[in-house]
Amino acid sequence: MLARTKLPQPAVSPKATEFLEVAAATFRNPACSSDSSISFGVDLGTATIVLTAVDGQGHPVYWDSLPCQAVRDGVVVNFGDAVAAVERLKNTATSALGSEISSAATAFPPGVPEAEARACRYVLENAGITCRHLGDEVSAAQALLRLKDGAIVDVGGGSTGVGIVVNGIIVAIDDQPGGGHHLDLILAGALGISVEEAEERKRRGDQDYSHILRPGIERIASSILRQIGDYAVQSIHLVGGAVRVPHAALIVAGFGGIRTCAYPHSELVTPFGIAMS
Ligand SMILES: Nc1ncnc2c1ncn2[C@@H]1O[C@H](COP(=O)(O)OP(=O)(O)OP(=O)(O)O)[C@@H](O)[C@H]1O
Ligand SMILES: [Mg+2]
Fold first, then answer.
1. Closest residue to atom 1 of ligand 1, CA basis
2. Where would I find the beta strands (DSSP E) of 29-112?
3. Is 1 within a domain?
4. I need a surface site. Which of 10, 21, 26, 50 has the fewest CB within 10 A?
5. Mean pLDDT of the chain
6. Is 0.90 topped by the overall pTM?
7. Residue 3: inside a domain
């Protein structure tokens, strides 16, 4: 059993929570919207490529995703596969929404060199989508969360990005290797199963593996603290798919002594934030 910490948890924004609950239900299933001006986002992640859509009022309209290993930590390592995945997502979305996707925003992890970040733009363009905005992933998450103060932490498949927010402005960003894939390696080793099987079991979520994953989550927590450095952060706001594992926020809070919360459907924060950017 996981030891309980008495650290109070910061309130998760009710607005962001409601957005994410509604957004999750639009998976390959467009929401009705009276507003026809739709903005699209494409998240070229290490584990998945996600296409999202919001209407002109900022309400979630649609999302879809495909597992894809064509991008590693913001670096496009297999251009053809990345383009093919975006094309597939685009075609499915075009049929589902009944409208063309001519432009979209995309994002890269903070700290990725500009030349690598530009490759994200080229992926969209080769899939027949104009890149209307190329920004960093933490700023995209903030577009949805609208934190006043604290640290936004995006724990994805391959890396952990941190943004420090002061008075609603991001004053520092960083990104370091380490995320959900590392948890898969730990689970696979502990259970004597393949990494693919570990990934599947972890995502299924029907068992609490926190007693096994705790060292891996604490390693992520230590990376978060290193990235926060000397900033006086009062609260950590976890997003990204890797923090969907049970007790992730509790373990990070206990390790760092900083109040920590994880958002529901945390893997959707950055992708929908990209569409809102
Ligand atoms: N429901 C879930 N339960 C547990 N883990 C999950 C769940 N959904 C996603 N994950 C994990 O989250 C990770 C992927 O998260 P996410 O989609 O945010 O990453 P990404 O954006 O593709 O990667 P990165 O941001 O590092 O480039 C994977 O390790 C995956 O196993
Ligand atoms: Mg990501």
1. 203
2. 39-44, 48-54, 60-67, 71-72, 75-76, 103-108
3. no
4. 21
5. 93
6. yes
7. no
